[in-house]
């Protein structure tokens, strides 16, 4: 039996060659998280149908922002003429 006949003679049960997209049977760019097994192109197409939705974060304006603790602590040290952060 020649080497060409033996090579890939059995189906793969492990590795990248064993997995494929359940929509288009593509093997690259596979999203396996949550057992989706969908390639990234099909995921973008069917994401809303599956239940994934984009979330928009609200930008906080400068008036609503509070200085962080470290910045506030640094200001206290500057006022007391100690220029360290500790």
TrEMBL record:
Top-rank lineage group of the source organism: Eukaryota
Entry keyword annotation includes Electron transport: no
Cofactor (UniProt): Zn(2+)
GO MF annotation terms: rRNA binding; structural constituent of ribosome; zinc ion binding
Statement: the UniProt record of this protein carries the keyword Nucleus: no
InterPro entries, per the entry: Ribosomal_uS14 (IPR001209), Ribosomal_uS14_arc (IPR023676), Ribosomal_uS14_CS (IPR018271), RIbosomal_uS14_euk_arc (IPR039744), Ribosomal_uS14_sf (IPR043140)
Keywords, ordered alphabetically: Metal-binding, Ribonucleoprotein, Ribosomal protein, RNA-binding, rRNA-binding, Zinc
Gene3D superfamilies: 30s Ribosomal Protein S14, Chain N
Cellular component annotations (GO), alphabetically ordered: cytosolic small ribosomal subunit
UniProt record, GO biological process: cytoplasmic translation
Assigned protein family: Belongs to the universal ribosomal protein uS14 family.
HAMAP family: Ribosomal_uS14_2_A
Protein name per its UniProtKB record: Ribosomal protein S14p/S29e-domain-containing protein
Organism per entry: Absidia repens
Lineage: Eukaryota, Fungi, Fungi incertae sedis, Mucoromycota, Mucoromycotina
């Amino acid at each position: 039996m020649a080497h060409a006949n033996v090579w890939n003679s059995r189906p793969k049960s492990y590795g990248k060659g064993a997995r494929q997209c359940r929509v288009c049977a593509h093997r690259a760019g596979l999203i396996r998280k949550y057992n989706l097994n969908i390639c990234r192109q099909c995921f973008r197409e069917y994401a809303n149908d599956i239940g994934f939705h984009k979330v928009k974060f609200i930008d906080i304006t400068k008036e609503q922002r509070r200085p962080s603790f470290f910045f506030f602590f640094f200001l206290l040290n500057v006022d007391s003429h100690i220029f360290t952060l500790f």
